[in-house]
Design a protein that fits this description.
The structure holds two protein chains of two kinds. By secondary structure, chain A is mostly helical. Chain A has six helices and no strands. Chain B has a domain of 64 residues: Helix Hairpins (Orthogonal Bundle). Helix content of chain B is 78%, strand content 0%. Chain B is elongated. The chains are: A mainly alpha, B mainly alpha.
């Protein structure tokens, strides 16, 4: 019962935060809405029995990405602009979103939906997670480190070049 | 009783809101964050299904998606800053060099 109440509260907060990001005119408030949404999604990760990733989500998104986005907005001056209205692109976007949602629900109501099965305590533990990372997923793990190195070099090159 | 359907419905809402933001907003930073929101909602689906089937593979995938999105954040912010310095505006309509 408590679980359901917490779930709906957190889901509502995530949804409101996402709406704030997309529909608020002021960029700083929009980014703060996104921060609320990412923290709520992190809480949902914890409720899904993967507390490690929930913590990770809060540190990486609410900590790093949101602060960088706020920093960019503050450094370059906040510029107010809402979502576009009345263009062909807007109409097509809302139409495509609606069709996509309807299609997802058509799939969802056709499939069997059961309650979450019980899992043992070791399910989302760091031991199990680390074991998977260094055994079955060792190659992708190494490739991810190469990707991060490449991204770091690229960011330095991009920010050092002089743009006229 | 919270079923897997609740998680999937929430994730689909978040994905569609992020999609609308990515396609209708003008500010480059907001578009970037809307794409991050779409990534987050897909992560939620991965974790919910992984939990439902009792397998850890979903969580490992989410871990890798987070690594990719961290790389994307670093490059994306660098590109955004370069773009804003060059065009003196955050509006992505200014990126019309390859417009036909």
């Amino acid at each position: 019962m408590t679980f359901a109440v917490v779930f709906f509260a957190v889901a509502f907060l995530a949804f409101i935060g996402a709406l704030t990001l997309v529909f608020h005119r002021h960029p700083v408030i929009a980014v703060l809405g996104m921060a609320a949404a990412t923290v709520s999604i992190g809480v949902l990760y914890v409720m899904l029995h993967v507390p490690f990733l929930g913590l990770f989500q809060m540190i990486v998104y609410a900590g790093a990405v949101m602060v960088i986005a706020l920093y960019v907005i503050m450094a370059l001056g906040p510029e107010e602009s809402g979502p576009q209205v009345g263009t062909v692109q807007t109409v097509l976007t809302y139409l495509a979103s609606l069709l996509f949602l309807l299609h997802l629900y058509r799939v969802l109501i056709k499939s069997e939906i059961g309650p979450m099965p019980a899992v043992d305590e070791a399910f989302g533990s760091i031991q199990a997670f680390g074991g998977a990372l260094v055994s079955r997923y060792a190659v992708p793990f190494e490739l991810a480190s190469l990707l991060l190195l490449g991204a770091m070099v690229g960011a330095v090159v991009l920010s050092r070049r002089q743009w006229q | 009783m919270i079923t897997i359907g609740h998680y999937l419905v929430l994730a689909s809402f978040l994905f569609v809101v992020g999609l609308i933001g990515a396609l209708t907003r003008k500010s480059a930073i907001i578009v970037f964050l809307a794409i991050e929101l779409m990534l987050n909602s897909v992560n939620l689906v991965f974790l919910a299904l992984g939990r439902y089937f009792g397998q850890l593979d979903g969580a490992v995938f989410v871990f890798f998606i987070m690594a990719v999105s961290a790389a994307e954040a670093a490059i994306g912010v660098a590109i955004t800053v370069a773009f804003i310095r060059r065009n003196k505006t955050t509006a992505i309509d200014a990126a019309n060099l390859m417009k036909w």
